[in-house]
Amino acid sequence: MATKELTFQDVAEHNTKKDLYIVVHDVIYDATKFVDEHPGGEEVLLDVAGQDATEAFEDVGHSDEARETLEQLKVGTLKRNPGDPKPKSATTGAVAAAGQTQSAGAGVGLYAVVAIGGLLAFGAYQYLQQQQ
Q1: Model pTM score
Q2: For residues 131 and 113, what is the distance between their CA atoms, to the nearest angstrom?
Q3: Among positive and negative, which fits the CA dihedral 38, 63, 44, 6?
């Protein structure tokens, strides 16, 4: 099958259960035949029908098998025109993940400081009690 090049407007016309296209990483897939088989239910696909589903697809963390199935549904590539929504960049996700890691580290550090401070306060209290 020859690969088509479609615009967002072309893809947007395929937004029903009987005719459903999605875009993932600027590749267009015809998910019409897969709607009833989708493990997450048809609603998940219908929510992103005729749209860029990259973020939703990646947020779920699909398996290698799911990615292979997706490849079998490939129709073509997305031709971006001026004014089309910008794709979410991979670096944005990496930066966000790094930020979450640093935040988690700061949370653990804060608990450590509070725990150590509590132990020091308890030790000081015990010391002062013995002095009296």
Answers
A1: 0.63
A2: 27
A3: negative
